[in-house]
Amino acid sequence: MVMFKVSRVETTPFDGQKPGTSGLRKKVKVFVQPHYLENFVQSTFNALGADKVTGATLVVSGDGRYYSKDAIQIIIKMAAANGVRRIWVGQNGLLSTPAVSAVIRERVGADGSKATGAFILTASHNPGGPTEDFGIKYNMENGGPAPEGITDKIYSNTTTIKEYLIAEGLPDVDISTTGVTSFAGPEGQFDVDVFDSASDYVKLMKSIFDFQAIQKLISSPKFSFCYDALHGVGGAYAKPIFVDELGAQENSLLNCVPKEDFGGGHPDPNLTYAKELVARMGLGKTSTEEPPEFGAAADGDADRNMVLGKRFFVTPSDSVAIIAANAVQSIPYFSGGLKGVARSMPTSAALDVVAKNLNLKFFEVPTGWKFFGNLMDAGMCSVCGEESFGTGSDHIREKDGIWAVLAWLSILAYKNKDNLGGEKLVSVEDIVRQHWSTYGRHYYTRYDYENVDAASAKELMAYLVKLESSLSEVNDIIKGIRSDVSKVVHADEFEYKDPVDGSISKHQGIRYLFEDGSRLVFRLSGTGSEGATIRLYIEQYEQDPSKIGRESQDALAPLVRHNTILHFVLRLR
User: What is the DSSP string of 437-461?
Assistant: First the structure.
């Protein structure tokens, strides 16, 4: 057995190692600086404390992006030096973010061990490669992202760090082959267990959904299917689930080989970046072949999803509302009823209407999956979602892209259970339009202003807060531009008091609420690797059956027009 000893390496702090809503994200060129990754990892161990590190079992894996394999080896050596008992690594360093959460919550090692945390190496939907983005975040024993109390400690530690611990004499571990490699250190044995990336997650999905019902749908000659992993880690799960378990054809899988640079693409599952899927589903500028009935895409770490029907796009806000409305009948896991539902503040209010109609507990939380996790741990929430293509449930403590795809396939299977031999299947579009007829439609769009100077972005947000006290002035400006725009009746800076632990999250976005239920929301995002991103959300609610079939750009035109002028005014302030 190879022996190692612990070395203490002197270091100095780096500026800007403050984790955002999804960990620390920077360009690869930043992470590869000597001591940069090590400083952050040691600061995390120090924030957790010896009681959560010494003797622990931790997971280290990610979406496979460039620099992941090097980072895994560094973290293994540092974990050994800090007294961790064993490290679990997905084969080839691959585990989707939802699979990491599942592994923490569900996997039991051959020796009876259970994981109590994880370093997840991902920058989610951001591009990968030598000149692109890398990221790291820590998840806790519940499988969810570290709470602000921990991330604040991590950041504080990064500003004062003077040394880190690393195992000297511990060789790189072969993470391409499953099996356990053992080493001996000052505090005893240290193991690295490389395991199959998909098996635990597939087992969990089979316990949630009726795979036999989905198989019947997929085997129908009238049903066709397409899944695009955008060369992210979702590809490691696509064949085991969709082909091996559910019987889909292999040619229904697009870009399902994980690549360090995501094939040179942008692994963000939306209409802009999932070009091949969008074209295949008949939503491109040119379309010659008959599109499949159902299509879906995932991001780099497979926690986000986009759902498409034949020539039809399902907004993420509608998607979570439709899943919630149909979950009890369609998904065995929810057959006993939903405990509650929740959405992030910028997400449209489509879920609110479902909750009200079904008499469900409802929560509006800040952006960040950890807020959903608190509700789930307290047994208060079953289904939740974000407008940024994130949907999930209380089976884990992360959003889950493949879960969302299986949820939609389950709904389609349920709606068509007596119709598989009929002339026409109930389609994705049919389901969405029926939902609008029942609950009304929330027209919705988002504008992103990326790589904005951080100081200027904060100045703009401060000015928007100031405007909250001058609603009469705001309404005068609006009426001068468009007389058909409803009146602003309320404006505030969203603040959230967690009903579980009582913690308060301030400065979570600025809302302008209109008399007719429309909204304008401004928020600074923490998911970029450089500069600041200002996100603007525009929403209009429509209950009139004669108006729910309009194109979004037509329905939102008055608010979009007003917003353009408002931005012009703000630039001249």
Answer: HHH-EEEEEEEEEEEE-HHHHHHHH
Alpha carbons 39 and 11: distance in angstroms, whole number: 8
Which of 99, 27, 101, 14 shows the shortest CA–CA distance to 67? 27
Task: State pLDDT tens for residues 13-28.
Answer: 999 999 977 899 999 9
7 is known as an active-site residue: no
Confidence category of residue 569, pLDDT binned at 50, 70, 90: very low
Tens of pLDDT, residue by residue over 393-433, are 999 999 999 999 999 999 999 999 998 888 899 999 999 99
Using alpha carbons, select from 233, 295, 230 the residue that is nearest to residue 266. 230
The C-alpha atoms of residue 24 and residue 440 are separated, in whole angstroms, by 39
Catalytic annotation, pick one of 101, 124, 319, 529:
124
Alpha-carbon span 274 to 296, nearest angstrom: 9
Q: Where are the beta strands (DSSP E) in 63-110?
A: 86-90
Enter the pTM of the model. 0.93
Strands of the sheet containing 24-27, edge to edge, are 2-3, 179-185, 188-195, 86-90, 57-62, 117-121, 133-139, 24-27
Residues 523 and 345: their CA atoms lie apart, in Å, by: 10
